[in-house]
From TrEMBL:
This is DNA-binding response OmpR family regulator. Residues 122-222 bind DNA. Keywords: DNA-binding, Phosphoprotein, Transcription, Transcription regulation, Two-component regulatory system. Residues 3-116 form the Response regulatory domain. Signal peptide: none annotated. Residues 122-222 form the OmpR/PhoB-type domain. It comes from the Bacteria. GO terms for molecular function: DNA binding. CDD domains: REC_OmpR (cd17574), trans_reg_C (cd00383). The modification 4-aspartylphosphate is found at D52. It holds the Pfam family Trans_reg_C.
Length: 222
C-alpha cells in the first residue's frame, strides 16, 4: 500500500481526492495548506504528493521548491490552471507530472501508478521507510542499514514481494534452502525470530507487518 500526501486549501477537494484513492490501496494524509504539509513531511515519509497550485500564504510552486529541498518524493501538480506556461513552470521547479481540474479519476490513478513504477524498480521494495534492495543486497530503515544474514534477507524479500500471501514453513524452506535440504520448520522459526528482532531494534514497527499465521506459516501485511 502506497502513502500519498494530498495538499489543497479546500477541504472539499481534499476529501474528494481521498475518496478517489482509498479504494485503490492508497493511504491518504490530507494537508489543508502549505504549513500543515511541511509539518507532515518532516514527521513521515510519503510515496507520492498531490499538490494544488492556487493556495493562500504559500502557493504550490513555492511549496514544490520547499519540498524539493528536503525530499525527492514524486510530485503531481493538481490545479484548475492548465495553461502551458503553468505546466512548464511546475516541471522546472521539480514537479514530476501535472493534472488539471476537473480531475478524471482514471487518469489520475494512471499517472500516479506510472510515477511509482519508475521510482521503485522490481528488485527494490520500500514500505513505510523499510527498504529491501536486492541489487545492493541491503535491508535498511530510514537509510540506516539492518544487518541480516543472507537467508534472512532472502526470506524478507519473498514476503515483501507478495504482501498478504501466507507462506508455509515448507514453502519457505523450498524457496530459501532448496528442495533437497534437511532443514526443519524450527530453523525457519529461529530465522524469523532473529529477523524480527533486528528489524524491531532498527525502529521499524515490524510486529504490525510481519504476522504469524498460527499452524500455517507467515505473511507480510503492508
Amino acid at each position: 500500500m502506497n502513502s500519498v500526501l494530498i495538499i489543497d486549501d479546500e477541504k472539499r477537494m481534499l476529501d474528494l481526492l481521498a475518496l478517489y484513492l482509498r479504494p485503490h490501496d492508497y493511504t491518504c494524509k490530507k494537508a489543508q495548506g502549505a504549513n500543515e504539509a511541511l509539518l507532515f513531511l518532516e514527521e513521515e515519509d510519503f510515496d507520492i504528493v498531490l499538490l494544488d497550485i492556487m493556495m493562500p500564504e504559500m502557493d504550490g510552486w513555492e511549496l514544490c521548491q520547499e519540498i524539493r529541498s528536503i525530499s525527492d518524493v514524486p510530485i503531481i501538480m493538481v490545479t484548475a490552471r492548465d495553461q502551458k506556461e503553468d505546466i512548464v513552470k511546475g516541471l522546472k521547479l521539480g514537479a514530476d507530472d501535472y493534472i488539471a481540474k476537473p480531475i478524471d479519476e482514471n487518469e489520475l490513478l494512471a499517472r500516479m501508478e506510472a510515477l511509482l513504477r519508475r521510482r521503485t524498480p522490481a528488485n527494490r521494495i520500500e514500505t513505510n521507510g523499510l527498504l529491501w534492495d536486492e541489487e545492493r543486497y541491503e535491508l535498511s530503515y530510514k537509510n540506516q542499514p539492518i544487518k541480516v544474514t543472507p537467508k534472512e534477507f532472502t526470506m524478507v524479500g519473498h514476503l515483501l514481494k507478495k504482501p498478504n500471501q501466507v507462506f508455509s514453513r515448507e514453502q519457505l524452506i523450498d524457496l530459501i534452502w532448496g528442495f533437497d535440504t534437511n532443514t526443519e520448520g524450527r530453523t525457519v522459526d529461529s530465522h524469523v525470530r532473529n529477523m524480527r528482532e533486528k528489524i524491531r531494534q532498527a525502529g521499524f514497527p515490524v510486529d504490525d507487518h510481519f504476522k504469524t499465521v498460527w499452524g500455517v506459516g507467515y505473511k507480510w501485511i503492508n
